Amino acid sequence: MRIAMIGSGYVGLVSGACLSEFGHTVICVDKAEDKIAALKQGQIPIFEPGLDEIVAANVKGGRLAFGTDLGEAVRDADAVFIGVGTPSRRGDGHADLTYVFAAAEEIARALTGYTVVVTKSTVPVGTSRQVEAIIRKVNPAADFDMASNPEFLREGSAIEDFRRPDRVVVGCDTERARGVMREVYRPLYLNETPIVFTTRESSELIKYAANAFLATKITFINEMASLCEKVGGDVQDVARGIGLDGRIGGKFLHAGPGYGGSCFPKDTLALVKTARDAGAPTRLVEAVVAVNDQRKHAMAEKIKTAFGGVAGKTIAVLGLTFKPNTDDMRDSPSLTILPALQSAGATIRAYDPEGTREAAKLLNLTFCGDAYEALEGADGVVILTEWNEFRALDFARVKTALKTPLMVDLRNIYRPSQMAAEGFRYVSVGRSDAAPGTVVDMPQRRSESN
Ligand code: UGA
Questions:
Q1: Residue 222 CA: which ligand 1 atom is closest?
Q2: Could you tell me if 239 and 268 lie in one domain?
């Protein structure tokens, strides 16, 4: 199967590389010549574990190539995926579809033979039909079908997510297009991945509904964390206790400083706008957006309180990206929390394993080469992102480096009892210092013969 991937940003690059690993011949196209030149040299513009190896192996195997000529890539393709960016439109929060529509026009001019054109970027309900109309207008003779195939990859584990997805969602109206999409995902049939075929509108909405639901789950547990702090509960026990109910599920119930990243903030906002425009407002998602925004400010206040005021104090910060295993700083809670601390008079010394380059464009603070350098002479440390290397800090070294043994852990990577024993004043999220933690007895299932 020959595939053209239009747009070589995060979604395009990861999907294109993984589809080539499935055995298809893939050309990833992008307008940015420098990006394509770098990719041709084997340089990957984003940090995503495992991506460089997949790209290198499939380029070597002749299944993956990069180029700037959209027409050439589309001409021979059986399926053309649109994976260009859909940023939030300035001012109104709607997804900006300029790049999608521009790609549609170019694709229309290049189509030859039957082709399935697939929207892979996250696009509002109805976009696939708009793209179809554009292509028909520009090239009325084109022989094509449209499909919607949203992406559910998580940054940091995108390769694994692509290889072993919980499900694949495809929206299309014809059996012919379904046949092509089945062929695209054929390797996943081997491990019995559910492939949900539906209408294009449902497919587009599934993507937004999934992200909004996950954002809601996180926001719910964050509110429970605040309540735990007031009434003396432990949010991790609460998460465990509710998560063991199969109807709720234990995933995405980690309390923290609020969700960030390139997807949840943008997609929840876009869903709110779409729903309002459609006359069916999603008041729940509107509340999630507002609560999450407010949470980041509340975290700055929490840090100020823990430090007894931050004016004139030096704060060591570990982690700047919105989550570990990425260099992505988009909508990271650090972008709200740290400037708030700085305006209150704090000096920040920060370390992030991969995010420094991106963070330096957005934050004006002292960037350090490792965690211990950041801690040197600080009045306390704040953990903002749960990178693995922060999970096993050498406490003796930490205490020697800090002026006072104060740790504010907004990701709950340590246990309060452990930190107290190590001699730290430890402030975490939704846990009282005295809480011993849950013990869950899991009785052995009785064997079938009993
Ligand atoms: C998210 C979805 O998980 C993917 O399925 C989806 O494909 C992607 O958006 C997208 O639309 O492209 P991602 O933004 O990479 O993926 O990151 P997540 O792992 O979902 O984390 C998002 C934010 O939620 C992070 O700030 C993270 O720290 C926070 N989070 C997540 C919590 O605070 N608690 C949790 O329990 C889980």
A1: 33
A2: yes
* Ligand 1 atom closest to 10 (CA): 12
* One-letter amino acid for residue 395 of the chain: F
Element at 201 (helix H, strand E): helix 200-231
Tell me, in angstroms, the distance from the centre of ligand 1 to residue 29's CA.
Answer: 27
Residue of 218, 248, 292 to mutate, ligand 1, most atoms within 8 A of C-beta: 218
The answer to whether residue 101 sits within a structural domain is yes
- The whole-angstrom separation of Cα 267 and Cα 33 is 29
Domain interval for residue 48? 2-198
Quick: pLDDT tens for 160-216: 999 999 999 999 999 999 999 999 999 998 889 999 999 999 999 999 999 999 999
Task: Give the 3-state secondary structure of residue 196.
Answer: strand
What pTM value is reported for the model? 0.93
32 and 53 fall within a common domain: yes
Tokens of 266: 């943008």
Residues near 389 by Cβ (< 8 Å), separated by ≥ 6? 353, 371
d(CA 224, CA 207): 26
Active-site residue set? 263
Domain assignment present for 332? yes
Beta bridge partners of 4: 27, 80
| Tally of domains in the chain | 2
% of the chain surpassing 90 pLDDT:
91
Helices 235-243, 200-231: axis angle to 10 degrees equals 140
Smallest CA separation from ligand 1 atom 18, residue:
154
Which residue has the CA at smallest separation from atom 2 of ligand 1? 154
